[in-house]
Amino acid sequence: MCGIVGYIGHREAYPIVINGLRRLEYRGYDSAGIALYDGKNIQLSKTKGKVADLEKRADSEISKKGSLGIGHTRWATHGVPNDVNSHPHYSNSGNLVIIHNGIIENYSSIKTELINRGYTFKSDTDTEVLVNLIEEVKKKQDVKLGKAVQIALNEVVGAYAIAVFDKNKPDEIVVAKLGSPLAIGVGDDEFFIASDASPFIEFTNNAIYLEDEEMAIIRRGRDIKIRQIKSDKLVKPFVQELKLNIEQIEKGGYDHFMLKEIYEQPSVIKDTYRGRLLADKGIIKLGGLEEYIPKFINADRIIIVACGTSWHAGLVAEYIFEDLARIPVEVEYASEFRYRNPIITENDVVIAISQSGETADTLAAIKLAKEKGAFVYGICNVVGSTISRETHSGTYTHAGPEIGVASTKAFTTQITVLTMIALKLAQVKGTISKSDYMMHLRELDMIPTHVAAALKSNDKIEEIAAVFKNATNFLYLGRGYNFPVALEGALKLKEISYIHAEGYPAAEMKHGPIALIDEHMPVVVIAINSNHYGKVVSNIEEIKARKGKIIAVVTEGDTVVRELADYVMEVPKTPESLTPLVTTIPLQLLSYHIAVMLNKNVDQPRNLAKSVTVE
Ligand code: G6P
Q: Which residue ranges does the record assign to the SIS domain (predicted)?
């Protein structure tokens, strides 16, 4: 959370930093700020609110001149979102200025010590403590900025991606990373700094991703010196060529990133299995998996760790792994798993699922599993992300950048990867018949077409959204493979429309939620043709008997539920194990339209952030 951007080179820094902040707003958007060196002084402007508010403020506050600049978009951790707590932060002398993504956990004791030495603080942030600690080290030990940053960081506990510069040495920016991501774009005589590559992709395809506990001194028109913060060892910069392009990070005619990302699903699901699934030949080949297949099939169990929507993808995987590959699976919230002294052995395989590859709790769960000797497999979307590097092996989803805070295409591409893994293991283990295996491969290959067909109900779903937009509660019910989809549907609605919604296994309804049902309660029921169809129909009858309103997701051609439900949303027929990939589509659209009708900020819902790098 929080996005950081920086530039040092021969161009005007202001537009680069502002544009970069706009692209990183998904990481946090409660305040924003910028600091430029104009050749003489630091020009600093910051405000509570969004990057657009910062631009307005900067118009009257600063000259916007200068070819060195840093900027920040915030998701508050220490201190409420207000102008003063916004970044950048000055040191007491006014010479140093810093931006920071992360948390300094021991800031309070450092602050007390600095206060005893005469330092004063304007904000409630841990970041202002850090910049003053750097200043104190620099003064006391009479060292250059880079050294001072290194010494100071050796004293702090926590997570950070920082960029700092000194007014008296305006030809360099010092950056450092631990726990929060930091990419350096390498151009011709110019360098870019950002939390991900999106702010600089139109300028350069070459990037260096700092590793944890590394820092870099970036010098205008010269070079980058990377060091390990603890050992002081110099590290040879490893420049990667990025595959990202500018179209992928723009809205491309859609009103919101979320809608664009929902509509991208047919193509990104295909991108995710392209070259890996050869349906006609009966081949599934996942580079990261091949060598480790014996580990998976001989494992006592698979433990899946994840957070949020990725956790829901893990729940879907539990059904498919157990059903097809007959391997016991446990799905854990990473945040719970890591703190409950879990039993993990060398015979366990841990799968970590994360769109961003940066979620702090998932990362901590991975570290714990590795310490206990488990083999850890990652499923990430962001190439080069921390989780993708920390895991022993893994598979990338190829969803492209997901910018809407509410996750959509990441979910379906994660399920696509997990399904391919389950099918591959089932085939090798012999727990699936040849014909069933071939049928699944062919059907998986059809999913993009089915998703495109499900998207055609958009207008109808918009009409349903208009009917229920003022409801204050929603219940989502599903069974088997579609129970996690019910959870995900409810989460989508909560996240972007702020309507209370609960997902429940349909059969459990009578053990509690049925008490909530009256004529004001819309109940979204996933009632596709499956093993549980008859039972779900009975659940619908029970809801109708209590005057609840039924919005049902049904298989094309369904007649029974169509008769009973108040509204239906159709999806194409596919084997039950693949249905989450299609039933989730109408639920995404329903929550999207309700949020739009309620005038909510769909892409940047309040209090949330795309990438949660705090624990
Ligand atoms: C945040 C996001 C969710 C996401 C979750 C896990 O809460 O808002 O959309 O599902 O983090 O993120 P990850 O990047 O690990 O999948």
A: 292-431, 464-605
